[in-house]
Structures are given as structure tokens and as C-alpha cells.
């Protein structure tokens, strides 16, 4: 209709361009990390942590919550699950933007290359968040925002290339496929 030429002139005038994803890097020093065993999802006392404990810890790290359980903290008294180990240096890369699945597969492949010599890390993770207010979640069904808009999955990849895949959705969403 009549709106076509008007929209076209608006877009050409404003030179709409695809936004490049924003990438940030940081190094976390002396980070307490849970001890994980690739073949033990439930964890064992004094041997390894469970998948649930890992995901909770990862949320704290990504949100820069202190892990030292200080009673004076008004934000959090969370502490790293047991057993844990202190890692002198951990590398955190955050990519924010609209990222297609093919790029996520490329990222996974590049991360797996990190396990070549020298083998520094026992495991690494890749977390992919959907936008909290995205209209669609899993299986192309409507995404129920309600409280938190949970919509994510997390790969935990081990040195032997075993991996865990964790998925999280809101209470009113369909479960992932």
C-alpha cells in the first residue's frame, strides 16, 4: 500500500545496519571452582559436585557474586559447593547479541581445541541465553515471561570430550526437545 515507499525512505535515510555482537573478556583470579566428574551427574560427597550445584555456581560467577559466604554481605552469602578447587586464572568471554546456531557450533568447536596441549583445564562451559522477553522459546512455542523469563542451555565439556547439556526454561514453557 501507500506505507511501502514511506518505510523504504525511512530505512534508507537512517541506514539501518545489522548490529555486531558485543564481546567482552575478563580474567578471574583465584576462582573457587567445583570439582566435576564427567560420568557422575549427581555428584558424590567429598568426590564431586552435581550438575545442579554447577549451574548454581555458574550463575553466581556470571553475575559476579562473591563466593566467600561473608555474613556482612547484603547481596549474597552463597559459597562454592564442596568439593572445590582454587583456579589461579579463569578466562571469561561474554558475547551479547543475536547469534545464529551455526556460530554457536563454531564456538563449541573452538573451545574443544583448547583441550589440545597444554591441557590446562579439566572442563569448560558454554552458556547460551535466550532473551528473557523473547516471544518464542523451545519448539517454536510461545515463551511465558511471567517472573524470570528463563530460557537457556549450558554445555559442560570435559577434557575427554564427554559433555553435559543442561537446559532451563520457565515454569509455563514447554520443555526443550
UniProtKB/TrEMBL annotation:
GO terms for cellular component: multimeric ribonuclease P complex; ribonuclease MRP complex. It holds the Pfam family Ribonuc_P_40. InterPro entries: RNase_P_Rpp40. GO terms for molecular function: ribonuclease MRP activity; ribonuclease P activity. GO terms for biological process: endonucleolytic cleavage in ITS1 to separate SSU-rRNA from 5.8S rRNA and LSU-rRNA from tricistronic rRNA transcript (SSU-rRNA, 5.8S rRNA, LSU-rRNA); tRNA 5'-leader removal. It comes from the Eukaryota. Signal peptide: none annotated. PANTHER family: RIBONUCLEASE P PROTEIN SUBUNIT P40. This is RPP40 protein. It comes from Formicarius rufipectus.
